[in-house]
Design brief:
5-stranded parallel β-sheet, elongated, 470 residues, alpha/beta, single chain
Amino acid sequence: MEKNKKLKRLQDKITELEDTIQKMKVVFEHSFDAIYVTDGQGETLIASQSLNRISKLDPKNVVGRNMNDLVEQGLFDSSVTLEVLRKKETVTMYQRAANGKMCISTGCPVFDSEGNIYRVVTNVRATEEINKLVEELEVSKKLNEHFRSQLSSLNIEQMKQEKVIASSKNMLNVIDLAFKVAQSDATVLILGESGVGKEVLSNLIHRHWKRDKQGAMIKINCSAIPRELLESELFGYAPGAFSGANKLGKPGIFELADQGTLFLDEIAELPMELQAKLLRVLQEQEFTRIGGTTPKKVKARIIASTNKDLEKMVGKRLFREDLYYRLHVLPINIPPLRERQDDIPLLTRFFLEKFNQKYKVRKKISHKTMQIMMAYHWPGNIRELKNLIERLTVTVDSALIRPEYLPYRMHLTNLPAQAPFKPLKKIMHEVERKIILAAMESHGNTIDAARSLGISQPTMSRKLKKYRKR
């Protein structure tokens, strides 16, 4: 009887042990990171199936083999296990597998009761997976800051409707001012470099203008209309005012903008003779058509914009001083994109989603690419950024937009400050080095890196060897 009880307890213990082993096996094989275990001499005891996904190595082909042999055969370029055995401490390092993929591995020693290492347990993860997590974290962080800033100063829904993308403090201040300005009827002068978004801001002011009777917003670019036609476009003409004129006459944009907003873009290009007429309209709120005799009353809000320094133009007698001060009631200065770096990731994501949808693709920007874009000075501002994203969306075959796809000029941003004073050959070598290493980092192997740069694999290998020695 006693013997049967012992046998029963032994069977229960075995069943419990088998159940525990099965549970541990499920955890081991379903770990996203590859788990690699060796003994105290570097002999491989077991490796999880994730190793195959990360490095294309079948676990069955490494079990029972020593890490020294695997490194010599080129299955790995180095071994974190051997470093752990040498240093007798936890080690984290980069490794390159035979398929060219870069991995980050952390090996942990397991000591016996006498202080000797009898196991090394290593976790392995592909660096591209880590980079993806970093990119997602960076985007989430930027979005977090963006929405937190908006909540403190603006109505989020209004910004969404206007498609105003901003998180930088100086741009949020500009938008906040635009919402305040929209509550009045005063003339607004929007200043800023070409491509910063002056028209977008004018749309925001018009749409949030508080008045009982709301007219349309009429836009005119003072530099795009021939000088001889500009007056008739602004003020219209009476029937039979000149040869070839419409028999019924034609209303000008001031009439069309009555009870609404007139947006005068590139106001600095307005000829001096028309500046006097514009001043009269602003002062008297009336004008006369070309060839007409009867003044017409008009009530239109004026929003003007320019990328020129009107104050300097006044000093040079290129712009009327009285008109300048009439326009300069509520000035808003939009900062260039280089002064609002925090907006670049948000604008990039906005345009990327827009063009992904338009061209039915799913492109993403790599973390390194975004770093280069944020360091770039963007002389064309938001317009340049928008055009770049559309071009990359259309022309890049890869789903991930890596640094080598960016225009050559953008890589020059990261040159040292003293670079222009070096010999040209040395500058070119520095630029080439950055591009070669960036391509290798993105692709992980010389074949794909060479293909992306349009050079041969031997050339890529030779240049890589040359620049890695530096």
